[in-house]
Design a protein that fits this description.
The complex is a heterodimer.
Chain A lengths: L2 H14 L1 H38 L2 E5 L16 H12 L1 H4 L2 E7 L1 H11 L5 H4 L8 E6 L5 H8 L5 E6 L1 H43 L1 H10 L3 H42 L8 H32 L1
Antiparallel strand pairs in A: 1-3, 1-4, 2-3
Helix pairs in contact in A: 1-10, 2-8, 2-10, 2-11, 8-10, 8-11, 10-11
Chain B lengths: L1 E8 L9 E8 L4 E5 L6 H8 L7 E6 L2 E2 L8 H5 L2 E5 L10 H11 L4 H14 L15 H13 L5 E5 L7 H16 L3 E5 L3 H7 L2 E6 L2 E6 L4 H4 L11 H4 L1
Parallel strand pairs in B: 3-8, 3-9, 6-7, 7-8
Antiparallel strand pairs in B: 1-2, 1-4, 4-5, 9-10
Helix pairs in contact in B: 3-4, 3-5, 4-5, 5-6
The structure holds adenosine-5'-triphosphate and magnesium ion.
């Protein structure tokens, strides 16, 4: 195998089809940037899920005098209710699900409320008695919150059982929808870059049909004939995917870390180390797709 | 060396076969002319020997390879042992004479040391040693065909197939190409050449295989074209049995 010869063929092919090659580079660049962004979004969702789900608890809100009467007909929960709830949580059937729980009385709820809504006018008007006394339950398996809900919903003196994750799930489903949309766009763009690559390779083969004819006549192996064309597609796509990698890393460095993380200091965001996982995958994906697309294209062309 | 038995070739969509029950043996070192009217099947027969086509029926053996059964990935390696020349030269216009010949060796993966030795040698053999740096459009037709011959034999093939190699050349130039082919034949290369060139066939006194309508009409060793050439209105008749 003469590498010099193959190399010369590739550079010639790239130069002859320069505008097509540039469009391959741009399309792979854009589509893989989308794929990378979708990947980052998924990584971000994953990170937030582990962070927040870990901290999410199930709240058993006890009735107050201001609770709606259909849930709490007898008003403020009596101390008996508290002991009953506590007993049930200690009961072996439930205890096996519960990691730990604690009771938040009116005073504690009031202090927490005052802290959360500092400076807000509601803080001034709310009274201790209006805020629910609450059992905060942390589960061993956060997915099993239904057990708590089934046990305590409808029990006299319990206003409501709520899994904090239900709030988180709304946020995550929005983020998820965004990343699915990004993946959808990425798939369409990847498909068009695959088509573009095969068209370009066919054009390139057509412009070199004399050489191909002579190569086949003198007995060049199929692999040797096809290799320059496959590499042509791969080289262009590699350039595109490297650009996409740079774009994804730039997005992390300057947008996520440089902007979002500054503005929302309490949330943990994806960082360069996540990018270092995604970028090699992007490049591999780009190279594989280009190799496949141009390989199939040139094989089809040569068969005719 | 080349063994063709009972070969029928019907092209896709064609009503009549291009070759019909053709059998032919060619020995090592033979020089064979394929003659016959246009459309009689000469090129088709050459394409079968090169495994550019496969027969619809019958068997083709070339250099010990069964060309009906050979797997397609082995075809390139088979073709390395065969040289081919065409009427239209098929040179690469953007490459010099040297590069055109070197191209064959390059795509076969030969070293540049080997190439820089083998190419001038073969160019001297065909008489183009001085014109190595010319481009094809700076050469006469005869010289272009010499380049094509050089390209075909630079890898020292056992068989040279030539499809009307003198078809575009005047008689004097044709004679030059023919003596080149004879010279190549004398080094042991089997030559099979399709031609319409009556004068050449007559002069060289080689084996002549005549085709008509896809049949072998006549296979004469040491015969001239005249004896082989039938009356034109006989071509359509089923003459094969009578003459064999
Ligand atoms: N690729 C093809 N597809 C269909 N028919 C073909 C093909 N090649 C040749 N033929 C037909 O097969 C028959 C034999 O053609 P072939 O080219 O072998 O003749 P030939 O003797 O070489 O003629 P010529 O002297 O004009 O070159 C002709 O009828 C031709 O039309
Ligand atoms: Mg012909």
């Amino acid at each position: 195998m003469r590498l010099g010869f193959v190399f010369r063929e590739i550079t010639q092919g790239l130069r002859r089809n320069i505008s097509m090659v540039v469009s391959i580079i741009l399309v792979t660049f854009l589509s893989l940037t989308f794929v990378g962004t979708a990947g980052l979004l998924q990584a971000q969702i994953g990170q937030m899920k582990t962070y927040w789900y870990d901290r999410a608890q199930v709240a058993i809100y006890l009735c107050t005098n201001t609770s709606p009467t259909d849930a709490c007909p007898q008003g403020e929960a009596s101390p008996d209710v508290k002991t009953a709830v506590e007993a049930k949580l200690h009961d072996p059937t439930l205890a096996s699900f519960v990691s730990k729980f604690y009771f938040e009385d009116h005073q504690a709820a009031y202090e927490k409320f005052q802290q959360q809504f500092k400076g807000n006018t509601v803080a001034k008007y709310v009274t201790k008695e209006q805020l629910n006394e609450t059992f905060w339950v942390k589960l061993k398996d956060p997915n099993k919150s239904a057990v708590i809900a089934e046990t305590f919903t409808g029990v006299a003196g319990v206003e409501e059982v709520r899994d904090q994750r239900s709030y988180l799930d709304q946020i995550f489903s929005i983020l998820n929808a965004a990343s699915i949309a990004a993946i959808g766009i990425a798939v369409i763009m990847l498909a068009s870059s695959v088509l573009l690559i095969s068209t370009t390779i066919r054009l390139s083969a057509f412009s070199r049909r004399r050489e191909i004819g002579i190569m086949r006549l003198v007995g060049a192996s199929n692999f040797f004939i096809q290799l320059p064309f496959i590499l042509e597609g791969v080289v262009a796509a590699t350039v595109g995917s490297l650009l996409a990698g740079v774009a994804v890393l730039g997005l992390i460095q300057f947008f996520v870390q440089g902007y979002l993380a500054q503005r929302l200091p309490l949330t943990s965001f994806v960082d360069i180390s996540d990018g270092m996982v995604i970028v090699p995958l992007l490049v591999v994906l780009g190279v594989l797709l280009a190799g496949l697309a141009s390989g199939v294209a040139i094989r089809r062309y040569l068969k005719i | 060396m080349i063994s063709i038995s009972n070969v029928t070739k019907t092209y896709k969509g064609a009503a009549k076969p291009a070759l019909d029950g053709v059998s032919l043996e060619i020995e090592k070192g033979d020089f064979v002319f394929l003659v016959g009217a246009s459309g009689s099947g000469k090129s088709s027969l050459l394409r079968l020997m090169l495994r550019e086509e496969v027969p619809s029926k019958g068997a083709v053996f070339v250099l010990g390879e069964n060309l009906v059964a050979i797997p397609s990935r082995r075809v390139p390696y088979f073709r390395r042992k065969i040289g081919v020349v065409f009427q239209d030269f098929r040179l690469l216009p953007n490459k010099t004479v040297f590069q055109n010949v070197a191209f064959t060796l390059e795509v076969l993966g030969k070293s540049s040391a080997f190439i820089s030795e083998a190419v001038p040698e073969v160019l001297n053999l065909v008489g183009l040693g001085e014109k190595a740096d010319r481009f094809p459009n700076e050469l006469s037709g005869g010289d272009q065909q010499r380049v094509a011959v050089a390209r075909a034999i630079v890898n020292k093939p056992a068989i040279l197939l030539a499809d009307e190699p003198t078809g575009n050349l005047d008689p004097a130039t044709s004679a030059g190409i023919m003596s080149l082919l004879e010279k190549i034949n004398q080094t042991g290369t089997t030559v099979v050449m399709a031609t319409h060139d009556v004068g050449t066939v007559d002069r060289l006194k080689k084996r002549v295989v005549e085709l008509a309508g896809g049949h072998i009409l006549r296979d004469d060793r040491k015969s001239g074209y005249q004896h082989a050439l039938p009356n034109t209105d006989q071509i359509e008749l089923p003459l094969q049995g009578g003459l064999e």
